[in-house]
Amino acid sequence: MVSMAIRTARCVKRFLRESGKKIRTHFVIEAYPLTQQVYCMNDSKITIAPPEIIVKAGALALGVLALFLLVLTASEWKSMRFIGSGVTATNTINVSGKGEVFAVPDTGEFTLTVRETAKQVKDAQDTATKKANGSIAFLKDAGVDEKDIKTTDYSVNPQYEWQQGVCPANAGYCPGGKQILTGFQVSQTLSVKVRDTKKAGDLLSGVGSKGVSEVSGLTFTVADEDSLKAEAREKAIADAKEKADVLAKQLGVSVVRIVGFSENDGGYVQPMYMKREALMAADSMGGAAPQVPVGQNKIQSNVSITYEIK
Q1: Tens digits of per-residue pLDDT, 119-137?
Q2: What are phi and psi of 67, to 5 degrees?
Q3: What is the CATH number of domain 107-164+175-222+274-284?
Q4: Can you tell me the distance from the alpha carbon of 206 to that of 280, in angstroms, rounded to the nearest whole number?
Q5: Half-sphere exposure of 23 (CA within 13 A, CB side)
Q6: CA-to-CA distance for 219 and 143, rounded, in angstroms?
């Protein structure tokens, strides 16, 4: 500030000499954010520009601020295009779409259960374990990988029987009954995955010969089901979009954007159940394996889409 004052004084004196006047000068310097003012006795006023670096810094700051505001505005505008964001749509239409894909199953799965009852837990466990291990050995020999055989349940439950008390002769009442422990039931359930569906019938018949109590939940699926679901969803969305375009044309409006979406899967495959008696009957009649056609599975997608209109 002092050096600037000296330079200013010199500038003023030079100005006076060149003008041919000889007067005594007195000046005051007042600093402002962007300019400095110099006042002389003759009321002359000289405006001194700020240093160049300050001008550049100020211009840079204004440029950065403008760029920030521009990016912020663009971001807010872009967010308005996302589903469910921005101003709530007041004029909407809702349409549904359906997509179906068919595929031949390449994987089968079923569960088998062994149940045995005995007076002692050990006796029931020994018998159940023997039958379960026999079934596992048969499955492995038939080509089922060990990783595709999994125990999903193992339980031991006491078995009771209600015993009514004996009524005394010529008595006006009978004593109450009570539960009597009669033994224990051991149950083991295995889940089996069959990667060669052509062997499904032979496997069902084979485990029946090993004394299993029940085979249940036989289903056939497609290993790469996710890609089929995506394909069905794509068809369902295309179906809904076509319906929306037709409806908008009939109503004389235009479709703006999607503001809502939901999806429900379909195509449940009904499992097959076979009791022990049916399995043993099939095995006793010459060991004929049941025919188990895999058919084809339907993967279905149902979507509901809400569109904003104008």
Answers
A1: 999 999 999 999 999 999 9
A2: -65, -40
A3: 3.30.70.2970
A4: 10
A5: 13
A6: 19
